[in-house]
Amino acid sequence: DDAVGIKSIEHAIIDRAWAEGWVVPRKAKTKTGKKIAVVGSGPAGMAAAQQLARAGHDVTLFEKNDAIGGLLRYGIPDFKMEKTHIDRRVAQLDAEGVSFHYGVNVGVSGDALALLSEFDAVLAVHLKGSFNVSRAAAPHFKAQGSGSYVHMTSTSGLIGNFGQANYSAAKLGIVALSKSIALDMQKFGVRSNAVAPFAWTRM
Asked: Which residues pair with 99 in a beta bridge?
């Protein structure tokens, strides 16, 4: 059989979709009232921001450089990918209600850390997420009479961190959660521990 250029076919489809107006902003019909920060505006950051906005959340996308796109914009030369592809996606995100903050290096810029204290998702993802997963695993551990929880916390929760009160509180909450689970589940032969890794990064 002859080879099929799937990549070329997909490019042709989406290029025509943009050209003929098939790709349109999809604004959320209802709002949740939740504020969510997405750090980094590369492909994953833009995709996450778009889906969260479409789910009804108020989303702010933070980028340390002066334009959205991450490595798509700054790591790929123009002859490999025209930046108009990024620009039209950014325009779509804007129309769907995503807010943008440029020149903000989260973890370094004090302004960014102050802004992050407003976002509910920091607590929801780290602390509530850990609780929900632990609760879902409990009946299975009880049924088999054994099991081990390993919760990921952070040294920020143990010693605090500048400008990250919400993150530090969430991470220390995970320590308390893990200790409480250990007390509750020991009679079922289940252990619970929290790991607090530490590393220096650009943040």
From this structure: 60
